[in-house]
Amino acid sequence: MVTSSEAASNRRQTRLRREYLYRKSLQGKEKASYEQKRLVRTALAAGKKLPTELRASYDKLATEIQQEDSKTQVQKTHVDDEYGDAGLEDPRVCVTTSRDPSSRLKQFAKEVKLLFPNSARINRDNNRVDELIESCKESEFTDVVIVQETRGEPDGLVVCHLPLGPTAFFTLSGAVLRHDLEGGAQPMSEAYPHIILNNFQTDLGKRIGNVLKCLFPVPRPDSRRLVTFSNENDFISFRHHMYSKSGKNEVTLHEVGPRFEMRLYQLRLGTLDQKDAENEYVLRPYQNTASKRQIL
After folding, report:
1. Would you state the pLDDT for residue 7?
2. CA dihedral in degrees (266, 130, 122, 96; nearest 10)?
């Protein structure tokens, strides 16, 4: 039987999702209006004639421009709703596995849990995806990270942002656990790490960089822990280091681990349990032009 608190929570999540979808549906109209006002500002600043198609609506556009301030003159998208609170509060990440994990996947999940400050690792057991997401929402987690495997080798990573999404699906390859590193791993610090996002150039690349960056809280300036996501030909290399200053102008890096390679194959506008959510990106490697495209 559903309790009154659970019913109230479900109604709130439904309302938030409905409001989010409504604002997203208005995004196309707002983008057109924003582009028209940008053309008017450019013409007025340069002292040029207005474009012919904007002369009839100039009075309305000029009134709106005069009423705007530094915040409202910038176009907002659905990304502002998903990560509107990023940086205000530390993220809380739930790390779990696919069902019936092997001992190697359990160890990998433990090491992934140590990567994210303020995170918790839970046993999946036989919980369905919708039950898992609902439980994380009730526990006020901001993100869910699920690691997957094939024959004991980690080969999948799912990052789901709560409560509105998005959900990013990655393939994993070349996973090296801490105890498998050459020379042994350095002790792992629990300090908030600095995040290095390298070579995320496109709009989708910046979007994925934002998804990964928001898994970590804002670090202190003197933190000596580094987490790197480096994109090369749409493959994201993950590395985890500590650094120390060995001289006035010398810095020594110590790899902490784990390390692995990631590749995005799907980005869904919604949470993991919403099967009918819209896909923002899907990898299509068998198209003729697939080898020429750089998506990130």
Report:
1. 72
2. -20
